[in-house]
Amino acid sequence: MKSIEIRYPLDLNESFAVFKEVGEFFPCPWHYHPEYELVLVLKSTGRRMVGDHIGFFKEEDLVFMGSSLPHVWVNDPKYMHGQADHLAEAIVIHFKESFLGDTFFEAPEMESIRNFLRLSSRGMAIKGKARGKIITIMKKMVEMKGLPRLVALMSIFDILGSPATEYDLLASPGFINHSQNEEADRLGKVMAYIMQNLDEDITLPKVASLANMGLTTFCNSFKKYYRITFVEYLNTIRVGYACKLLSEKDATIAEIAYSCGFNTLANFNRQFKKYKGYTPKAYRQQLHTGPDPALPKKILLSNQYDNSWMQKYQLTQA
Asked: How far apart are alpha carbons 242 and 128 in whole angstroms?
């Protein structure tokens, strides 16, 4: 299932976009874009896919996504078939990293949100008290203009960057293009080595040597930085890459397992289900129940849906 690139043109008096989406269902296809995105579901239920993550959404679901991360919200059948007793509603915020200048996020005061944006390349479901605070702000932002709207976004940044903010990371590290994800530190060499040698036997002594660290120092540093052990991270990368291959290629599950570095099909199935909650076969079947790939064209050519902002999209095939 190939993703669609969507471009969001802004009005001349806007540096970022805030809009309310209302319709029988959320019409956007499996897509990505250069903007960061914050999505608040007001009404509707269904299934959301963020990278290789498949989850479910309901009212007050709040998700933040990094630049170029593929995603789609698929409403439950009663919305898709016009059988719901209310319309689907969501509030969406889009902004580019440079929306206030190329160096805005480099300011010392922006360190906390800068770290948050780095993690957002995997997508994050916001939870706890932070979610409630942000929901209140977003509902007011729809009617705001000018400086008050910008100040409201800064308030959201302050909440997201707080150490107390609770969230679940969604996509696994292996799904994300490494060029978007690599850090300018010693662990960057390790990430590059992993991505270039996924089908090989990757050992702790080898990667510790690449990072120019002792084995114990490397393990401690890695867990501190990524919040999981190196072995767990390596498995999530391999499973994430397998998800990408399952979505893009017609190769057999066994072929994909070996190309991702799993020595046996049984181990691949076991690790895949551990991290994704599905077998590889079930995951591939889930992908094929997504929206009609021709849907973008239908939306652009039809006035059937009250989503006029969709007509401004510029679509290109990935």
From this structure: 32
State the sign of the Cα–Cα–Cα–Cα dihedral 147, 153, 155, 158: negative
Which residues make Cβ contacts (< 8 Å) with residue 147, sequence separation at least 6?
Answer: none
**pLDDT confidence of residue 125:** 96
Kindly state whether residues 209 and 92 are assigned to the same domain. no
22 with 144, same domain?
A: yes
Q: What is the model's pLDDT at position 195?
A: 67
63 lies in the same domain as 11: yes
DSSP codes joined into one string, 152-165: HHHHHHHHHTSTT-
Residues in the chain, pLDDT under 50: 177-184, 291-318
Instruction: Report the 10 Å Cβ neighbour count for 158.
Output: 14
Q: CA angle at residue 242 from 237 to 247, to 5 degrees?
A: 130
Torsion-angle region of 51 (φ positive above 0: left; ψ -120 to 50: alpha; else: beta):
left
274 and 223 within one domain = yes
Report the C-alpha gap between 8 and 39 in whole angstroms: 15
pTM value? Answer: 0.62
Q: How many CB atoms lie within 10 A of CB 266?
A: 10
CB 142 within 8 A of CB 148: no
Both 142 and 81 in one domain: the answer is yes
Say how many domains are in the chain: 2
Judge if 301 and 152 occupy the same domain: yes
